[in-house]
Specification:
This protein has 284 residues and is α/β, with parallel strands linked by helices. The chain has eleven helices and eight strands. Helix 1 runs parallel beside helix 2 and helix 3 runs antiparallel to helix 11.
């Protein structure tokens, strides 16, 4: 597959497995490799923002270096903030104080960056862009990565939203619909992975005001495995190139083991660098 100015970049989520993606993107930024269109979901959206703002290692610092220092994953945050992640730290202190986010650079390029959310009213995916409003940009990425059951619903433009991965974990079809017939996919599971969990009907008392969201959650695993089947077909036909971990990932969605996170980040960085060299993308 030829990579050119119309090739899209698709970033999967996966919670803390997203450190793999941050490694890949840091390698891309090292060689000034940027794609003209990027669509990202959940943890991929968080990493994608630092990629769009041209801030190498920013995502790595927040996901690994600061994890032990600030201990921002835990049940106490679920009790105090309604989210298992410390959202005040991640979406306020980090971008505004501790690891300042370059909004000016981000808004130069964000018109070609879409973040995936799930509309709780319809149970369908939405693809959102923000090109000027600091707070809305942070709210969108927060909604995109707000895991069901352990995060509060996030209102965007008056619409209740949650993690985009509920309905579109690998938004390659969105990229194709937007006119990008060839895409590079950064995935956070090894080739051949399929979830062995089983779908279950979500009881009415959970998200009782959002019946369509319950339906989407009840078919989430089936939908994800079908997307993985689609990725394999697209890869075999030469329509996509995939960068993914080479072996089963030991990092969990809410992983706190820094050594595991560091190893996965380094694997992503190495594979990202190999990808740049293999396809002669180096620009500096």
């Amino acid at each position: 597959m030829q990579i050119d100015g119309n090739t899209g970049l698709v970033l999967e989520g996966g919670g803390m497995r997203g450190v793999f993606t941050s490694g890949v993107l840091d390698a891309f930024m090292k060689y000034d490799v940027y794609f003209g269109y990027v669509v990202a979901v959940s943890a991929g959206a968080c990493n994608g923002m630092s990629y769009i703002s041209r801030q190498p290692r920013r995502a790595r610092i927040s996901n690994i270096d600061y994890l032990t220092r600030y201990n921002y994953i835990g049940l106490r945050h679920l009790v105090t903030q309604g989210c298992i992640f410390d959202q005040k730290l991640l979406y306020d202190k980090f971008p505004n104080e501790f690891i300042p986010f370059d909004f000016d650079t981000y808004f130069k390029y964000s018109d070609h960056f879409e973040m995936v959310t799930t509309n709780c009213d319809t149970g369908r995916s939405m693809y959102l862009t923000e090109t000027s409003d600091h707070q809305r940009a942070l709210d969108v990425v927060r909604a995109s990565s707000s895991l069901p059951y352990v995060s509060k619903i996030v209102p965007i433009d008056g619409i209740p939203m949650l993690d985009g991965g509920i309905v579109d974990s690998i938004p390659v079809m969105r990229a194709m619909e937007m006119g990008h017939s060839r895409n590079v996919l950064v995935l956070t599971r090894n080739k051949g992975y399929r979830s062995r969990e089983r779908d279950h009907k979500v009881p009415r008392f959970i998200y009782k005001n959002y019946p369509r969201l319950r339906v989407a959650l009840s078919h989430r695993i089936k939908a994800y495995n079908e997307q993985l089947d689609l990725v394999d077909r697209l890869e075999e036909s030469g329509q996509v190139l995939c960068i993914r971990p080479q072996k089963p990932v030991e990092v969990g969605r809410i992983e706190k083991d820094v050594n595991k996170l560091e190893a996965l980040y380094e694997e992503g960085y190495e594979l990202g660098e190999q990808f740049v060299m293999r396809y002669n993308l180096r620009r500096n």
